[in-house]
Amino acid sequence: MIEWTIEAARAATSISEVIISSNDTAILKRYNGTPRHPTLCGPDISSFAVVKDALKRCRGFDAVCLLQPTSPLRTAADIDNAVGLLYMNIWADSVVSYTPAGSQYTLVTNGAIYLARRETIEAGSLIGDNWLPYVMPASRSVDVDTAADLALADMLLQQDAVCA
Asked: DSSP state, 127?
């Protein structure tokens, strides 16, 4: 799943630098990633803590786009569209991906894209007060947390529904 995420990030024209933070030595070697400090590994570690740690090695960024590997069906176009949404709305401090749930008026966070301006990150959050939703279709919004989620993601990939 991490490879799908890395490839989507690298294919996105709006992303100038891809930082891969992991404790998996094979992934680090293959993609020239940044090793995580052991205290930042495990199920109880927040994504924000990992982002802050990775940014210690970066300078001059305008915004950060967190792409969690548990949402592998997002595309480079989704990333580029979310970045475009942030930059077209100068007042917005962040963009979060959502998917429709139940009715056209109900949206649920899908975990695929968290995008925040530098100032929002420096203030201590991935989601600021002036955030915008980036709405994705259900076919690209699977958040893989269980074996059933993985089976669904695999089925969608086999059906090529991700491109829809």
From this structure: S
Residues 119, 38: Cα–Cα separation, whole Å: 27
DSSP for 22-90, written as a single string:
ES-HHHHHHHT-EEPPGGG-STT--HHHHHHHHHTT--S-SEEEE--TT-TT--HHHHHHHHHHHHH-T
pLDDT for the residue 77:
96
Q: Which residues of the chain have pLDDT under 70?
A: 160-164
- In angstroms, the Cα distances linking 31 to 26, 35, 86 are 9, 11, 27
Q: What is the pTM of this model?
A: 0.87
Cβ–Cβ contacts within 10 Å for residue 55, how many? 16
Residue 150, CA distances (Å) to 142, 147, 155 in order:
8, 5, 9
Tokens 């429709």 belong to 100
Tell me the domains of the chain and their CATH numbers: 2-163 (3.90.550.10)
